[in-house]
Write a structure and sequence with these properties.
Number of helices: 7
Strand content: under 5%
Largest sheet: none
Order of helices and strands: HHHHHHH
């Protein structure tokens, strides 16, 4: 009896619909955990690179030197480095074309906002999948449970005397679907909320840097154009 009521035996003896539900939920759980591990590494690396770049940037007084170093490895830039590179390259390009300080600052600020938006797309990639798994997995498991219980009670209609021993295996196999649905959903919800919070904090950090860097660029523009005005 214990062998017949083992989880493996119940899964193998389940109806094709319930087995299909279990396969979908297991696949969703495996993909969720793969995404969770990958996203954890991605966000951890993004935080570390942001901290390293901010230390290097604010610890140096040579913005042009920092930009030159980054242009030498333009294809491997990440996060805050790309925001800095976008803003400073646009600042330099516009400064060579116009003396209008407002146009220069608007252009460099817009370039950094676009860069921040692109970084948001990168770090938020695949997060909706976790939200989807967390929201629909319990319902998929519930569908399997309802279907299994329905089959169990339908089978009871073919016998004259129903006993608990007859209905228990069918109900047990049905409840496994609910358990697997929760097993897939709970980690997905927990890590989605955690990642969403970390992404918001990281994007706020990017946006704050862009604002602070805009102030630095504005001071440079004022010094340049102020000096030109005094010479004239």
């Amino acid at each position: 009896m214990n062998s017949d009521m083992s989880i493996l035996h119940l899964v193998l003896a389940a109806s094709p619909i319930v087995q299909g539900v279990l396969v979908i939920l297991v696949m969703a759980s495996v993909l969720s955990w793969a995404l969770i591990l990958g996203k954890s590494r991605q966000l951890r690396r993004a935080r570390r690179l942001a901290e390293d770049f901010e230390q290097d940037f604010w610890g140096s007084s040579d913005i042009s030197g920092t930009y030159s170093k980054l242009t030498m490895r333009r294809g491997t830039l990440d996060g805050m480095e790309r925001i800095f590179e976008a803003g400073f390259s646009e600042f330099g390009r516009l400064r060579r074309k116009t003396d209008n300080e407002e146009v220069i600052m608007d252009g460099s600020g817009r370039a950094m906002r676009i860069a921040v938006s692109r970084e948001a797309d990168i770090i938020e990639h695949h997060l909706p999948f976790l939200a989807t798994v967390g929201s629909i997995s319990p319902y998929i498991g519930l569908f399997g449970t309802v279907w299994g219980i329905m089959n169990s009670f339908t089978a009871l209609g073919n016998v004259q005397q129903a006993t608990l021993a007859m209905v228990a295996p069918g109900i047990a196999e049905a409840l496994i679907a609910t358990a697997v649905g929760l097993f897939a959903a709970i980690p997905a919800v927990l890590f989605y909320n955690r990642f969403a919070n970390e992404v918001d904090r990281l994007l706020n950090r990017y946006e704050n840097f862009a604002e602070e860097f805009s102030t630095v660029l504005q001071r440079q523009a004022i010094r340049r154009f102020g000096g030109d005005a005094e010479q004239s």
